[in-house]
Design goal:
The chain is of the alpha/beta class. It has 16 helices and 20 strands. Strands 1, 2, 3, 4, 5, 17, 18, 19 and 20 form a nine-stranded mixed β-sheet that branches. It has a four-stranded parallel β-sheet with strand order 11-14-15-16. The protein has a three-stranded parallel β-sheet with strand order 6-7-8. The radius of gyration is 25 Å and the shape is globular. The N and C termini lie far apart (about 60 Å). About 45% of the residues are buried.
Length: about 425
């Protein structure tokens, strides 16, 4: 069959049609540019400076904060969400969570619940439980969490990645996979036949080389942090094991969180080894606090009660200049409350312990934000930070209970919760600035 010839005019016509179908340079740039959203509110708490700003607008583009300006200076063409008489502040950060972990008091004590959870729940069950609790947390205003173990083998990594992919709704997660621990994990003394159960929740350490190998494995499995159980029952990691863990993790650029309770010995082992945070530290001494201050270690108290000795160590830590990042460490089911609602109720305990309202807010935002992201993208409402923002009724500087009255939640520039739209005529979404 003879080839059909195409004349040059026909070729030019085809090329012209193809070029006409392409977007112009201007329209291509418009397509590539992210939409601009403006949050407007009566007040904004600048947690870094410790001041309340009035009648402000936060300009957001591409999930990041572009600027914080007076509400009268709005860029044209943006969508405005006017929240009215509320206070904006950074999304809350819970520095010690267990989202894939839920006990029930009717099942008995921690050991009984721990065995039931490991035996009865598959990895998929744990991840789905975590997805449910993650949503409860973010809807209560927690846009970031550091999740420290008790999640099975890498199920926390799966949940973290699912949230990052947008498959499920939840806070930004920093995870640790299985905790490194002495023989027996946190089970205490158990029969040797049951040790395989321990391995589903903990990596048991015997000697510095096993410690290094466990760190490398955790990082390979996707850990953002290394969680170490320094002591459990009579078992305590040796100083050389702790030093090997910290050295191996820090060589890889990964930080270390150390669970240390019951006496000063475990906390001092962790502090001298140079961990990045000490969890709990209920009976921590001034000697340990000095080492923590010298080594730049943050205390993560997880106080579930207002016992005087717990409160006293908060005051001593503040006096020693040790940074405090608040964590909830919740894992028992409370009927009638979500995990997020329960977590938001912990803050008044720290005011009772002697912290000012501003110090508590900073320990729930700025301090853990710097700990988790040294680049400063979380924990503050300021240019260059991710747009993780909440709105509360009231002024947290006067009433710390305002942190329990979250009306609006934004994470990465996306609105997760807007209770104002149903309750306030001044709250709007979609108003354009001319």
């Amino acid at each position: 069959m003879p080839m059909k010839r195409i004349s040059w005019p026909s070729i030019w016509a085809i090329l012209a049609l193809a070029l006409a179908s392409l977007p112009s340079t201007a329209s291509a740039q418009e397509a590539d540019s992210a939409p601009v959203t403006i949050l407007r509110a009566a007040h904004l708490l600048d947690v870094r400076e410790g001041v309340l700003l009035d009648d402000v607008a936060v300009v957001i583009e591409g999930g990041e904060i572009r600027s914080v300006t007076p509400a009268g200076e709005l860029p044209p063409g943006a969508e405005v969400i006017d929240l009215g008489d509320v206070t904006l502040l950074p999304g809350l950060i819970d520095a010690h969570t267990h989202l894939l972990h839920q006990y029930r008091r009717e099942n008995g004590n921690d050991d009984a619940n721990r065995i039931l959870e490991i035996v009865e729940m598959s990895g998929a069950d744990r991840a789905l439980l975590g997805a449910s609790i993650a949503r409860e947390m973010v809807e209560a205003g927690f846009t970031t969490v550091r999740d420290l173990g008790n999640s099975g083998t890498s199920n926390d990594v799966a949940l973290r990645d699912a949230i990052a992919q947008g498959w499920v709704i939840g806070p930004r997660m920093y995870v640790s996979t299985r905790a490194l621990a002495p023989i027996g994990g946190q089970f205490g003394t158990i029969e040797e036949v049951a040790l395989p159960l321990v391995e589903r929740e903990y990596v048991q350490i015997e000697g510095p080389e096993e410690a290094r190998e466990a760190v490398r494995r955790a990082i390979y499995d996707g850990a953002d942090w290394i969680k170490v159980i320094v002591n459990s029952g009579p078992m305590i990691l040796a100083p050389e094991e702790m030093e090997a863990i910290v050295d191996e993790a820090h060589r890889a650029g990964v930080r270390v969180a150390a669970h240390a309770t019951k006496g000063d010995g475990p906390a001092m082992i962790a502090a001298r080894a140079g961990v990045d945070t000490i969890e709990h530290g209920y009976t921590i001494s001034d000697d340990v606090l000095k080492v923590m201050k010298d080594n730049g270690i943050t205390l993560v108290p997880t106080d579930s009660e207002t016992a005087e000795h717990h409160q006293a160590r908060i005051r001593r830590a503040m006096a020693a200049g040790v940074p405090i990042a608040i964590g909830s460490d919740l894992y028992y089911k409370v009927e009638g409350q979500t995990r997020g609602e329960e977590a938001a109720q912990i803050y008044p305990r720290y005011v009772t312990a002697g912290m000012s309202n501003l110090e508590v807010v900073r320990s729930a935002t700025l301090v853990p934000g710097q700990l988790l992201d040294p680049r400063g993208r979380i924990g503050a409402v300021e240019p260059g930070a991710w747009a993780d923002i909440i709105a509360v009724r009231g002024n947290p500087l006067e009433d710390i209970g305002a942190l329990e009255r979250v009306e609006f939640v934004m994470k990465d520039g996306a609105v997760i919760v807007n209770r104002m739209s149903a309750s306030s005529p001044s709250a709007a979404g979609g108003t354009a600035v001319d």
